[in-house]
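<derive_structure_tokens>
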Amino acid sequence: VDFHVVDVHLAETVTQEELLAELKKLNDDPKVHGILVQLPLPEHINEGTILKHIRVDKDADCFAAENVGNLCLKGGDPPLAVPCTPAGCVELLQRSRVDVSGKSVVILGRSNLVGMPMAQLLLSMDATVTICHSKSQDVAQHLRGADIVVAAIGQAQFVRGEWLKPGCVVIDVGINSVDDATKKSGYRLVGDVNYPEVLGVASLVTPVPGGVGPMTIAMLLKNVLNLARQSAGLPRVPLRREVPSVEPKPL
């Protein structure tokens, strides 16, 4: 895509002050349009403090409070960037011609990275959203009425096929490793849903790996593109578009 990328590699022993100094250099550099801090950070560094020091107009991951707030406000200014994984999920739904308006959506997980922003995006698209989390009772019962399921809880193969409404759409955000003696690595990657079971029930389901992951990267690039366009006074590439009334395509 012809983006110029600068990797700033720092030792794990870097101090918080040194990391903030590196961030300041990037914030002050007019040639830098997007900044991403790879998480998690070493234990001796305050993650919240670091993220607060990323300029909002260079916030490629949508961690800045202003961007998160604008994502949640109805009728306000749009965020300069959109959380990458939820944006990727929306892109998958749209490219698969899945109209979420009026549909019942259950999101498993309430993280700042996926669950909460996913709920806000789907609410803005007129979906009826339920969030289930570690304290939710009878998750299976919630799932049985869902037209769309977004699984992002980090529990390997948690969602069973028998819990789902026939014909529903399932987006599996989870990525977990499970032991597998047949693999050279000794493990294989699976999602938060039991893929073989769900495949026989859902009309559409994303695989793991190779489903949501590549879309997360694509949306990160889209965020950086929009931040660059914003800095140049150009219109941004919109997140959403109208969904034609045609049969859904496979995810």
Remarks:
- The chain has two domains: 16-80+215-231, 84-209.
